[in-house]
Amino acid sequence: MRNYKKYAVIVSVFLLSAFLLSSCKEFLNPEQEINITKDRLYDDWYEYRAIAMGLYGIQAKLVEQLVILGELRGDLMQITENADVDMVEIYNFNVSKENKYASPTNFFRLITAANSFITVLKTEHPEVLDPKSPVTNYDKLYGEALCMRAWAYFNAVRIYGKVPFIPESITNIDEVNNFLNSPGTYIDSLHIIYGIDGYKNDTLKNVPITLEKQYYDQKLIIDYFTNELTKSVKSVGVNHFIDNNDQTWEVTVWNQYAYDALLGIMYLTDGDLAKAAKHFESIIYMNSDNYRYQIDASFGNNSWRNIFTNIDLREHIFTLWFGKTFFQQNNFQEFFEPRAPHKYMLKPTRSAIMNWETTWDDFQLAVNNTQPERTRTTNIGRPGDFFRGYGASYMYLQNGVPVPPQMVQGMLYLKSQEDYRTSALLVEGADTVIWKYSIGKGVFDQDARFIVYRAAGVHLWLAELYVWWRFSQGGVVREFTSNAVNILNDGSNYSVSSARLQRGVRGRVGVGGATDGLRVGNINFLRHPFTNKVTGYLDLTGNFKGLQLYLEDLIIDERARELAYEGERFYDLMRVAKRRNDPSYLAKKVSDKFPEERREAMYNLLLDEKNWYINYFE
Q1: pTM over cut 0.85
Q2: Could you give all domains of the chain from N- to C-terminal order, each with its CATH number?
Q3: pLDDT tens, 515-524?
Q4: How far is Cα 284 from Cα 294, in angstroms, rounded to an integer?
């Protein structure tokens, strides 16, 4: 009998037969916890794999919390009068410990379940600790579990500012509660020490161990887990395609590219641009026959919304799968839709909608760089990002029915003629709705996938990094600001070849060309959001730092158009504000969504970085 610590391991798992026979991701509801006793656990490979899948079920329980905390505190989402009291608290940055969206419980459940699985793998398969041993599926499961645990800690510390470090010997939520409620030390009375081979016949002793409660801030979390992942992971991601002939499995479990994305964003958050670039570049510049993760026309124009209706290896890096048929659902439609029986509790802010509606396609300027004040708009072009914006990321609904795109186009045209009164009539009484999780969904589906990492997001992280990254090559200091612009507009950071298929993040939806692409130079022309007429210019001649700040602003705005409501917005604002050492950057953007009478108070509140975090562990 295996002498594991409390080998009644409590983890959510698949029904094994369903897992083996189906290509679908049939996670059981994590509320249905199953006790796997020590005489039944881990007898063969399929039990290992089933338990690993249970971890993803726990991770899936976090998606609503991630979106609400990552978006409702940002500048792109706000509450409606239907919002529940917990959403109101989050929106107002006045969060109680009873708030269900602020609770760290599901993070702890994932961490402790990962702790348990990691301990088992190290004990039963000590070869996972040997970097010289051949890579097996156990190494890949070990990599998945390490990534999942690191991801949980990283997201938690971005939310709470500091988090308790849960020792690996703590493997269930009850132990976490006892540990956190202890006066500073915790006696773990069932700790087992194994011999060097880790098998039952090498067990040395079963002794109590004193665990000291420690809290790690963001710097410590990033340092600890980047070090662990780079030193301990041999491989990531079991190839389930062999068993089920479903290639999408590759990106619905932690894999090598998701591993690089996690390390990249941790390093970027910490300010280590060289290491972040290494991991992001390994994703977007990898060799691939199908241009995988290079932004080509695969999701161009109207196909952009297909990113959210299917799982595709060309864009998705790591996606959490949901399926109504298997009762694996989430509450996104309930949160966002005004159609019965949904509750319409959250909606886009005006600034979010303006990001899309004030994007202009195919306009032309008569530029006069010598006398920039004489520059004029000669062709206003077409207003509105109708591929990523209307009908994809947001919608106008009148009495539950979508307003036709042609009517929205008419509204924007009337605004361009400064006929604001008539334009308002076209969407009068309409609800503004977050639509990204409703594309192609029936009213009762509630099973939109949640994308943790995707190609465009990584490209934009890399563009952000390129704004500031300077390094010496052959005694010459190199800067990559031009590559940042290329990533945004046309993908020419890849190659100058005429056969190049890359389009760029904006280019694949038609707004990355010579006239409508984002441009940064000595003279930068400012245009009216509704008429597209030139209103002035920004002179950055001889001011390279100013140019960098301006380009960074454009990239963060582009992240809003491309990635709104995918859970990262507040952390984008935090990261930039900290890099600039300027809390007013975040405070201004977020406070602007509040009613005018509250704006100044919220601005002053958010000038204090302590208020960016949910102080759950004070």
Answers
A1: yes
A2: 9-238 (1.25.40), 332-451 (no CATH), 581-618 (no CATH)
A3: 899 999 999 9
A4: 6
